[in-house]
Amino acid sequence: MKVGSDQSMEYFRLELRARLDKEFPQGNFYKRLGEDLDVIRFGHAVLTIERDTGVTRGKAYEIAAQAMTIKAASGRSLEREFQRFKRLCRRIGYVPHPLQSMGSRPCFSLNDLDGRTSAKSLK
To answer: CB-hemisphere CA count at 13 Å for 88?
Structure first.
């Protein structure tokens, strides 16, 4: 809703709109929490799929994205999302569980974020 024309000789114009994220004192805190939870859900799903099925991490990205109905432009964007998960985990000091607020304990360590080493790399 706008009161006043876009071009006018008046000094003031009244405008009613949704606030931008940068206009909140701490940014849009609740939006950021929601985005962080989505990243945690995706990252935890990737680690769980990789552990339970034994597939490679790239294939686990695709399976997790399909399960969560994430539409990504490429595999690279899924990889970036997982990198964001890794940064978040390192910042808080552990790998959180998506249902942590309901009492679930973490089931992965920070070492699991780097991936499995293959038999070839050990030789």
So the answer is: 21
Q: Are 27 and 21 in contact (CB under 8 A)?
A: yes
Q: Integer distance in angstroms from the first to the last C-alpha of the chain? A: 68
| Of residues 14, 78, 92, the one with CA closest to residue 42 | 78
Residue 5 has pLDDT above 70, yes or no: no
Spell out the residues 6+ positions from residue 73 whose beta carbon is closer than 8 angstroms to its own: none
φ, ψ of residue 119 to 5 degrees: the values are -65, -30
Tokens of 70: 């994430």
Query: Full-prediction pTM beyond 0.90?
Result: no
